[in-house]
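USER:
Try writing one entry.

ASSISTANT:
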Amino acid sequence: MNKGLFEGWAKVFKFTFSQNTKGKSYKFTLFGIGIFLFLLFFAINMLTGYFSDKDKEKKPQKIETVVIENLYYYSDENISPYDYIDSIKDNTVFNNVVEARSSEEVYNQVKSDSKDGKLSMGIAVEYDKEKNLYDLHLNGTSKMSKDKLRDIGEEYKDYYKEKKLITLGEDEENISIIMSEGQIETKDVSEKDKSFAVEMMWVFVPMIVIFVLYMMILIYGQSVGKIIISEKSSKLMETMLVSVKPYGIILGKVLAVYVAAIIQIFVWIFFGVAGYLVGDKVAGTLFDNYNNQILEIVKLVIKSSSDAFSVPALILMAISILLGFMIYMLLAAMLSSMITKAEELSNINSVYQIIVVIGFIASYFISLFGIDSWISKAIDYFPVTSPFILPSDILLGNIGILKGIVCIMILVVCFVILVYETGKIYKKKIF
C-alpha cells in the first residue's frame, strides 16, 4: 500500500457521518432507546425492592429459640465466645462448643456435620497484617438460615471488638480495630462450587451479547451496502473520484456507518448501566429488605474465575466488540463493491445475511456445548463466529487474558486483509 492509498478518506467520513446522524430518526433512536433502557433497569431494581419488602411483610416475625448442635470457634487472640453465648441464650442455644486450632479446621468440622445432617456453625477470627484488620469468617450447614448466620456475625463482631478493647486496656478511640461489613464472610459449606445462578449467567450473558451484536451487524451491514451502491449509480461518484482515492472512499464510508453505530451501542450501554446503578441506590434507600441479586451473582462469577469482570477483561471485551463489528461492516462493503447496479443489492444482501446468520447460530448453539468442549474453544479463533462469542467469553473468564489477546490479533489480521481487498475490488468495479 502506497502513501496516498487512502487519500481523502476523512472528507468522505465527515460527509457520510453527517448524512447518517443529522436526521431526527437517528437522534430519536439514540436517545429514545437510551431513555427506555434507563427506565427499564431502574424499574427492575425498584420492583425487586418492592416485592422483597412485600414478601417480608407477609411472613410474621416470630422470635423462636434456635438449637444449634455444635459451635466450632477459633480466635488467634484467644478470646472465647462463652460470654456471647450466654448473652443470646434466650433465642439461640448451642449444645456443644468446641475450640478449633485454625479457621480451616472450623470449616472442615462444620462441613463434616453438614454431611451428617446436623445443624452446626463455625466462627473464626483472624488478624490480617497487610490490611491491619480482623476478618470474621462464619460457616453454617445447609439447615441454617443465612439471615440467622449473618445476624450472629453482626452481634459477634461487636462482642469481639468489646473483648479486644478490654484485653488491650485502651479506649476505643485509640484502638485501630476495623471489622466492617466487608470483613464478615458467611458461607454455606454445602454450597456447590458453581451455583445455579452462576450457571444461568454463563448461559444468558452470551445469549444477550450475541443477539444484540447480531441485530446491530445485520442492520448496519445492510446500511453500508445501500450507501455504497447508491453512490456508485449516481454522478456524485465522478465528482468524488477527482479528489479522493477509491480506497479512501470505501474506508471513509465504512468508518462513518461504523462510528454512528458504535456511538449508539455505547450510549445505550451508558443509559442502561446508569439506570441500573441509580435504581440500585434508590431501591436500597426506600426498601429495607432490598438485595441486589445481580451484583451477588457477579461476585460469585468473579470468585469462580480470576479473569472474570477484571479490568483487563473489560478492556479486551470492548476491543473485541469494536474489531468484530468493524470486520462485518467491511465484509458488507466488500460484497457491495462487487456489484454495479442497485437491482443486484438484494442478492448481495442475501449472501451477507447468510454469513451473519451462520456466525450467529454457530456462536450461540455451539457455546451451549460448554466451555470444556473443543468446538466451543475453537469458535473464539474463527473470524465468522469470534465477533459474536469472544466478548462474553472474555468478560465471564471462560478464556484467559492471553488467549483473548491471541483471538483479537487474529481479528486485527482479518481487518487489514478486508480493508485492502475491499478497496481493491471497489477500485476494479469503478474503472
Remarks:
- Confidence is low (pLDDT under 50) at residues 171-194.
- The CA atoms of residues 370 and 376 lie 7 Å apart.
